[in-house]
Amino acid sequence: MTDWTTFEVEVGDGIGRVELSRPELLNRFDMVLHRELTRVLTDLGGDDEVRAVVLLSTGRVFSAGGDTEVMLDASKSIARRLSLIDEGRRLFRAVADFPKPLVVGLHANSYGLGTSLVLAADAVVSAPDVEFSDPHVVMGLAAGDGGCVVWPSVMSMVRAKRHLLTGDPMTAEMAYQLGVVTDLVDTRDEVGPAAVALALRMASLPPIAVQVTKRALNKVMMARADEVLDTSFYLEAITFGSEDLLEAVDAFKSKRAPEWKGN
Known about the structure:
With 263 residues, the chain is of the alpha/beta class. It contains 10 helices and 10 strands. Helix 1 runs parallel beside helix 3, helix 4 packs across helix 5 and helix 5 crosses helix 9 (207-239). The longest helix has 33 residues, at 207-239. The chain starts with 6 loop residues before the first strand and ends in a 9-residue tail after the last helix.
């Protein structure tokens, strides 16, 4: 197995366990994580010993979403923006079109791209007080990264609009009531074991039946992706060149209120 730098991987009992392992960086999605997660999903998808995958994380945040340094780098040229967008498209499709059951154990808050990947999974296990959000607009960006695909796919359009247009978080308890979180446990410490148990249950079933059913379900998600994914990514690329993005990053780092100019 490859030595990964952004997460740890274990394979056994029919499941692949991928655990984001950079809590000191809040498991943010820099280019290394983009590429490694795409590659490991490709590897696990082609491994006959793996019948299901569980995605977990470490630390006080499941994932902080996009890396602000990557955002600033993308703002410098169209070529850099297109390269980032292409990486993002590959990663989203690797998750949304993964050929085997994918369970997420959401033990802590998730943001932006991290949330898009969580909502693209087949089952989400969480605890009531955990929150997830997509604050793209707060950072002066269009909600690319799959947000405009997955939020309306797993809940009503008007509820998705309410959160994507404000960046406001949703609690796992609310998400469970809406059918977005599939399994709710009492405490954050119970999330990981419950997610692993669910992945093991899926892996214990007839693999061909499960995997062809998963492929059929993927067609539904990918049909929505074909409608809007590329458009949202390219609109995000446009906003990478805005003054509002630079202001958002500076305000975030300075811990001050931003001043928007709409340029």
